[in-house]
Every structure is written in structure tokens, then in C-alpha cells.
Amino acid sequence: MKIKNILVTQPAPTDEKSPYFSLARKYGLRIDFRPFIKIEPVPGQEFRQERITVLDHTAIVLTSRNAVDHFFRMCKELRITVPETMKYFCVSESVAYYVQKYIVYRKRKVFIGKQSFGDLMDVIKKHKDERFLVPSSDIQKQEIPLLLDKAGVRYTNAVFYRTVASDLSDLKDIKYDMLVFFSPGGIESLRKNFPEYVQNDTVMAAFGPTTAKAVRDAGFRLDIEAPMPEAPSMTGAIEHFLKNGAKADAKKAKEGIPTAKPTKKAAAAKPAKAGKK
After folding, report:
1. How many beta carbons lie within 10 A of that of residue 78, not counting itself?
2. Do β-strands 87-90 and 110-112 pair in parallel, antiparallel, or remain unpaired?
3. What is the predicted pLDDT for the residue at 89?
4. CB under 8 Å to 210, separation ≥6 — which residues?
């Protein structure tokens, strides 16, 4: 099967040097971007009802840019002045760099994991005397509380924002050879917007184990799971698939085995049937 068009369920990159654009040029692809989920803030008044006191904590665990934005947004809304002694434990360098939007960066205040939350736990374990606040979405990765509990650290999970499905009704006449997901919320959005969706030959790609699990739990076939040893990024995993797929088709052609092609009936399918070929 030749991949010609891909839908990435995230906002379009703002950097012209994005690897997605390079991938599109290299393989002659059409790559569209459309967020399948959107973020809604939890109002300060609602947060107060949880009786969580931000200043009872000495350290903040930041797992994403959304967590950074909504932690400081909530503090501003509740008129909380975050002390300069507050420490920040960031899951990656990109998150640590982003937190500089709100604070003056000092090494003694900002601690960084390599990439995953498991990596960050190695740093958190060295600071067990801290009391951690974990700003999160209503859909949190299961590994976070499990690892914190296992380490025996004092922490509070707090929902600062919610993940909700986007309205995708305008996609009804668009069909794609590949769908790329980055969160379980994206899968939930697909099912909510297109309850009659049938995957058929559409390739599904997922980033991270929780997203991969969500794809399988929804009854879909997972074709690409990133990161992988050969490709730590999603674009790398897609390229790895494209190369292997081309080799497989060439082998089939040499052996006289026909490759899969869309049927005329599937080609005329509507949005919810967007995966039909």
C-alpha cells in the first residue's frame, strides 16, 4: 500500500524546518494537521473547592507545556505569589526551557529528566524531603502516580486543565491513508466524532505506550508505535514504516503478489468511513 496522505492529530508546526515538512517533500506526501483534542482551563473558583493549597508544596512537577501554562495561569487567577524558593522538576529539557517564560532560570531551582517520567523519577528520588505538586489534566498518564507512590514521596495530584474532544465535523469529506495520534484523548475524539468509523487499510500510528494501548483498546490495529529503537521520534517512525512498506511492496511485485488497493466503493465513503479503502 502506498501512503499518499497523512493526518497528524496535532496543531501544525510553526517552524518551517519541522521534520514533518522534510518528510512530506522527501516522499511526496500530503500531510495535514488537525488537533483532535483541545485544552480547557479549570476555573480558579472550581479549583478552590478541591482544598489544595499550592503554597503547602515546595516543588512542582511539570510534565508538559500545558502543565506549565496552567500552573502559572492558576496562580495568577488565585493571586498566589510563587516564592523564589519553589523548585521545578521538568520531564525534559524542552519543558525546562519553556518554564523560563514564567521564572528566572536557576540551576538550583530547575531539575530536568532526560525524556520520560521514569527518567525524572531518578531526580525526584534524590529530593524526597520535598512536597511535590503535580499539575495535570483530567486524563493523566497512569505511570505518574504509580511511580510516585512506589518511590514513597509526598505529592498531590491536581487537575489544572481538561482535555476535551474537538469538533471534527468538517473532516467528513476527507480520507487519509494514515492517522497519527499522540494521546488517548485523540482516540476518544475519533470515536466520539466518528462513531461508525472503520479502519480497514488505514495505517494508525501512536506515540507513547498509553496512546498505543488506547488504539488497541478501541479495537483498532496499531501499525506504527513510536518511539522505537530505530526511530525515537514520530517522524522517524513514519519514515521507517514508509521505507519498509516500499520494500515489502517491491518484494510482492517481484513475486507477482498484488499489493492492496482501494476499492471503488470505499473511495466514495463519507467521513465516518474515512478509513475505508
Report:
1. 12
2. parallel
3. 96
4. 141, 142, 143, 183, 184
- Residue 16 has what pLDDT? 86
The 10 Å Cβ neighbour count of residue 114 is 12
Among candidates 34, 36, 16, which has minimal Cα distance to 191?
36
Position of cell 516543588? 59
Grid coordinates 492529530 are at which residue?
A: 9
Label the pairing between strands 30-33 and 5-8. Answer: parallel
Largest CA distance in the chain: 70
| Contact by Cβ (8 Å): 161, 66 | yes
| pTM for this predicted structure | 0.69
Q: Are β-strands 178-181 and 203-207 bridged in parallel, bridged antiparallel, or unpaired?
A: parallel
CA atoms within 13 A on the CB side of 253: 8
Cell of 84: 523564589
Low-confidence spans in the chain with pLDDT less than 50:
249-254, 256-277
State pLDDT tens for residues 44-60. Answer: 999 999 999 999 999 99
Q: Bridge partners of 156?
A: 133
Spatial separation of the C-alpha atoms in residues 265 and 200, rounded to whole Å: 13
How far apart are alpha carbons 41 and 159 in whole angstroms? 9
pLDDT for 174 equals 64
